[in-house]
Amino acid sequence: MKSILVGWLCLPILLLAGSALSQDAETGAQTSPVGRWKTVDEASGKATSVVNIWQENGKLYGRIEKLLDPDPGDPQPQCVSCEGEMRDRPVIGMRILWDLQKDGDEWSGGKVLDPNNGKEYECHIAVEDGGRKLKVRGFIGLSLLGRTQYWLRE
């Protein structure tokens, strides 16, 4: 009888602990950069493309999935400013983010490619605003000398 009583008294504690764990799991999912993100042009404030970010072997990668408002005269643009093997490759399907590794609350150590100018930058990213925004910082050398974009979760 005592064990049944103790079991019933412990049940609310176990239920509360399980609830807290599931909330942490939900929060963890929202703090992951994995998923689809709308890139935003800093000048116009308009979303320009959708980038799909995935994790593979502990690293993050991102690829342009689609352009949101392509130029009617060039609906399948190519990266004419890119160098090497990326030159003249279609922008849609292009890998623009690679080799980012988890570093505390952010991911760093990888690169980001700007298909508008063909340049590669060192990069770190961090999820913000409860998982709704992705802070993408590209730079050369020092992080202070760079540019930050905010992408929106799709």
List key phrases describing it.
eight-stranded antiparallel β-barrel; alpha+beta; 154 residues; disordered N terminus; 1 helix; 2 domains; Lipocalin
How would you sum up this structure, described in words?
This protein has 2 domains: 1-30; 33-153, Lipocalin. Residues 1-29 have low confidence and may be disordered. It has one helix at 2-30; strands spanning 35-40, 47-56, 59-67, 95-103, 106-114, 119-128, 133-139, 146-153. It has an 8-stranded antiparallel β-barrel. Strand 6 and strand 7 (133-139) form a beta hairpin. It is α+β, with helices and mostly antiparallel strands and 154 residues long. It contains 1 helix and 8 strands; from the N terminus they run H-E-E-E-E-E-E-E-E. The chain is 19% helix and 44% strand.
Low-confidence stretches: 1-29
Q: How many beta-strand runs?
A: 8
Strand content: 35-45%
Radius of gyration: 21 Å
Distance between the termini: 54 Å
Largest beta sheet: strand ordering: 1-2-3-4-5-6-7-8
The top level CATH class name of the largest domain: Mainly Beta
Question: How many domains comprise the coordinates?
Answer: 2
Q: Under the CATH scheme, which architecture of the largest domain would be assigned? A: Beta Barrel
CATH fold annotation of the largest domain? Lipocalin
Helical proportion, percent range: 10-25%
User: What are the secondary-structure elements, in order, as H or E?
Assistant: HEEEEEEEE
Strand count, sense and barrel status of the largest sheet are:
8 strands, antiparallel, barrel
